[in-house]
Design goal:
11 strands, two-stranded antiparallel ribbon, single chain, 8-stranded antiparallel barrel, alpha+beta
């Protein structure tokens, strides 16, 4: 269960958020042989992290204003209710949805084994991975199929009769962090395979920090927050 109070990061927390986003890029761009640092890449990562901090600060303020207006005394319960509304109707303002998800990120137990409960097909409802709030609610049908028995993960997108599927395996680096890498691409239409080929994409990771009933929230390696709604057991 989420705690009642939501403690937002202080200025020090924001600095830590920036360091966490820029540190991997900084390490990756150091040429140990020539002792060079690719500064443009580091600066680009720092700008991206700063952008997420600004968006999330605005979302936190939006959620705090909502709590004040509603005179809510249980922040965790209010946040879960907002996400339930967002998942079913998509009519919750984007910043309020993000603010509710951030509240739960601050208060949900970091030792909770969420990965073990993820088996099923999950609709990707919301993703704050871009600066344009217009696209935070995904305009297409996109699903994440997670099989906890075979440790496989598929990202399936439907656009009319066209179906695109990225498939691969995942590993658990903790009870909440899923690392995955897609290795196969399949494109089909009207139940006929048009293209199937091996691919090699960069490894990504999702930290599933909150899970309640058929809703889940995750922090993506790109820095954004993702809201997923489990629609059914795996029925592909």
């Amino acid at each position: 269960m989420a705690q009642q109070m939501c403690d937002w990061p202080s200025t020090g927390g924001v600095s830590l958020h920036l360091r966490q986003h820029t540190r991997p890029a900084r390490r990756a761009q150091i040429d140990l042989q020539n002792r060079r640092v690719a500064l443009p890449v580091v600066c680009s990562e720092a700008k991206k992290a700063a952008k997420h901090v600004r968006l999330e600060s605005r979302a936190q303020a939006c959620f705090a204003e909502h709590l004040h207006t509603q005179r809510s005394t249980n922040n965790g319960e209010a946040a879960a209710h907002i996400l339930q509304q967002a998942a079913t109707s998509k009519n919750v303002p984007p910043y309020l949805t993000l603010g509710a998800a951030l509240c739960l990120e601050q208060n949900w137990g970091s030792n909770t084994d969420t990965l073990a409960e993820l088996h099923g097909r999950w609709r990707m409802v919301f993703a704050s991975t871009t600066g344009a709030t217009l696209f935070w609610y995904l305009p297409v049908k996109e699903y994440k199929d997670i099989d906890t028995k075979t440790k496989t993960c598929d990202l399936v997108t439907y656009l009319g009769p066209l179906k695109t599927s990225f498939s691969g395996a995942y590993s658990a680096s903790s009870s909440q962090e899923m690392r995955f890498k897609f290795t196969t691409l399949v494109i089909s239409a009207f139940d006929r395979t048009l293209l199937e080929r091996p691919i090699s994409l960069a490894e990504k990771h999702y930290t599933y920090y909150w899970l309640q009933d058929n809703l889940a929230c995750a922090r993506s390696s790109g820095g954004g927050i993702v809201l997923l709604n489990r629609t059914a057991p795996l029925q592909v």
